[in-house]
Amino acid sequence: MRDRKLETFESHVLPHFKAGYNLARWMMCEDSAAEDMVQEATLKAFEAFSQSHFEKAKPWFLRIVRNCCFTQLRKIKLWRQVELLEDSLSSAADDPERHLIDKLDGRLLNEAIQNLPEEFRETFILHEIEDLSYEEISQIVCSPIGTVMSRLSRARKHLQRTLLAMNSKHEVKR
Questions:
Q1: What is the per-residue pLDDT for 173?
Q2: Does residue 88 form part of some domain?
Q3: Would you place residue 162 in the very low, low, confident or very high pLDDT band (cuts 50, 70, 90)?
Q4: 80 or 113, higher pLDDT
């Protein structure tokens, strides 16, 4: 029976492991902490799997990841700076100037996302990066769909203002 539970769990939940990691990475601001949170969430999800009744595994699992992250963040009461993401797909054959511009643009975007207020950041990540629907996000964050839509709209406006300000600062430095 345990083997059957494991097989069912793996087929329903593990396909969403990367999405769980992405969410945890943005919430915890550190690779190793994100890995720890996803591991903890996976264990909790496995323990609760046979008793849980859910329509879609992805929002269910991401809600567990989110709750694990919030629990940990409350314990340490400290946000760390996001490590800047590197574009590992660029090769040495790329145009060095284009590579530098792309790298700078990616860093500015990552910094702008990190500077979003917490509730806007998580909604933005879940919708724009994890491609979840408003309804799925609503289930994960325990908020009405209207609130999710409002947060996403505000996140986009905040990002736009932040990126414009960052671009202006960058242009002045040149």
A1: 56
A2: no
A3: confident
A4: 113
Residue 37 sits in a domain whose CATH number is 1.10.1740
Question: Domain for residue 167, yes or no?
Answer: yes
58 or 2, higher pLDDT: 58
DSSP 174: -
> Distance of CA 132 to CAs 19, 32, 115, Å?
10, 25, 22
DSSP string of 80-138, one letter each residue: PPPPPPP-TT--TTS-HHHHHHHHHHHHHHHHHHHTS-HHHHHHHIIIIIS---HHHHH
Number of domains in the chain: 2
The pTM of this model reads 0.60
Within-domain flag for 21:
yes
- Does residue 147 lie within any of the structural domains? yes
Distance set, CA 88 to CA 84, 85, 91, 100, 126 (Å)? 12, 9, 8, 13, 23
